[in-house]
Design a protein that fits this description.
This protein has 185 residues and is an alpha+beta fold. The chain is 29% helix and 21% strand. It has a domain at 49-141: Umud Fragment, subunit A.
């Protein structure tokens, strides 16, 4: 027997009055987060202010350790006491390599005097503001492990598989639309 009575699912009655407002709010929050990440973390090579330096060595112990990832941000000026990352100036031994040390003297035009916190003598190099990549903003301890994992295709495939499983297994089921008629036998 067929019925023309429209049944309203119980979940339809409990829906919020403005479901679009919640969606718009979530999208706006996501856009704000992405914009903030671009503002603070966009690499200098892509026109941003951020640089990323992976620490190697013991010259900055106890503050920075091998394997730490440091976010540095380009500034218009630098000051004595700040920890900065810089490129070894052209024409000097090690030219092009990145070093992260503390400014202990000098100035940006004639060259900064740099020294590691775990060193007794200043560096041989005297980078100018042009050579400085940026001042330390954030330290991510032991980031080398995460970076190493992200470079393994097998593990990336495994993570993707787990993500797909959880989306399928725990995703929301399709709800019947309001106004659909139910067949009653």
């Amino acid at each position: 027997m067929r019925s023309n009575v429209v049944t309203i699912p119980p979940r339809a009655v409990l829906r919020p009055r403005l479901p679009q407002a919640k969606t718009i709010g979530l999208v706006a929050a996501q856009i704000a987060i992405v914009a903030a990440l671009f503002w603070f973390c966009l690499p200098q090579g892509l026109g941003g202010r951020a640089g990323w330096v992976l620490v190697s060595g013991t010259s900055m112990l106890p503050h920075l350790h091998t394997g730490d990832l440091v976010l540095v941000e380009h500034q218009s000026s630098y000051h004595v006491g700040e920890v900065v990352a810089y490129r070894v100036p052209d024409g000097e031994v090690g030219a092009g390599h990145f070093v992260i040390h503390r400014i202990v003297g000098g100035n940006g035009r004639t060259g900064w005097r740099m020294q590691g916190d775990n060193r007794t003598a200043p560096d041989l190099w005297h980078p100018t503001n042009h050579d400085v990549v940026g001042v330390k903003q954030l330290r991510i301890p032991d980031a080398w492990f995460v970076l190493r994992v992200l470079h393994m295709p097998v593990l990336l495939a495994l993570f993707a598989g787990f993500a797909a499983f959880f989306v399928i297994a725990f995703g929301e089921e399709a709800e019947p639309k309001v106004g659909e008629t139910g067949d009653v036998d």
